[in-house]
Amino acid sequence: MKFHKKKKKKTMYLLYKIVFLLILSTSSAKSQDPLGEFCNKNTNISIGGKLSTNIDKLLAELALKTPSTFFIATSYGDNKDKVYGLAQCRGDINTQDCSNCIQNATKQIRQRCPNQADARIWYDYCFLRYSNKSFIGEVDTSFGIFYFNVENVTDSQVFNKKLGNLMDQIRGEGVMAKNKGLGKGKSVLSPFVTLYALVQCTRDLDEISCAQCLAIAVNNFQTFCNNRKGCRVLYSSCYVRYELYPFFFPLDSAKTKPSNIGKVIVYP
Ligand SMILES: *[C@@H]1O[C@H](CO)[C@@H](O)[C@H](O)[C@H]1NC(C)=O
Ligand SMILES: *[C@@H]1O[C@H](CO)[C@@H](O)[C@H](O)[C@H]1NC(C)=O
Ligand SMILES: *[C@@H]1O[C@H](CO)[C@@H](O)[C@H](O)[C@H]1NC(C)=O
Ligand SMILES: *[C@@H]1O[C@H](CO)[C@@H](O)[C@H](O)[C@H]1NC(C)=O
């Protein structure tokens, strides 16, 4: 009883924080466009200042070094001009795609957040973030972006059961150190329909923190992804996605095409 009440309150709190919602069709979004960015407007800095110069140096290092390891958490500079950075590619993609994605991210983040010391950018294949405040190893689900298929499943009971089972399985994989934050898998729903899902934590997180981020993401499915044919949750510490078509590598041959996608941004 108490649990129920608490949950309802939390949902209302979340809804209160939604700033805008827009519906966009997949055809209008080019593959090189980021899925979203966050420029922390409370961390304005002057362009050309020391902190800004350090951000450029940090980004050059991230662009250079990320593709070989798929993950970097580092810092640049000293004292009050020190900046921390993290870049990561999704574990299932190839080195070339990782390299392209990080290159694009380093350019786009400076265009989109030119005078902020705390900025983040999301793509399907990679995530990049920097801040003058240390964040490495900390779970952050304060800012979230949700993408969802506007179509709903027909048999929600069976679907949600299968989705829940698949999510449990891949979350278990994702938190294991040897999997570097990645869990992915599929579940056959019928001879014609297969469910695909993937989770990815940033690799600076320990097992418990990764599990925490994934649990928050999956809990929010109820609010933003309920009965949807596909959904994506983008946080600064983890990425969770499921679809009724193949989207992770190695890629299955596609049976269904994605349709109209909606987007919700949840601010802290
Ligand atoms: C990066 O940009 C290039 C060209 O501008 C584009 O072809 C490529 O698809 C982009 N990659 C990603 C991962 O967005
Ligand atoms: C930071 O700069 C943006 C413009 O880039 C402005 O809209 C915003 O109000 C500024 N924030 C603060 C706290 O001054
Ligand atoms: C980060 O930079 C902002 C803007 O210059 C400043 O207000 C804030 O105190 C800095 N934070 C830290 C931890 O240095
Ligand atoms: C899917 O369900 C939601 C919530 O119940 C509803 O608002 C929406 O219109 C439905 N979408 C379609 C395409 O029927």
UniProtKB/TrEMBL annotation:
<protein>
    <submittedName>
        <fullName>Uncharacterized protein</fullName>
    </submittedName>
</protein>
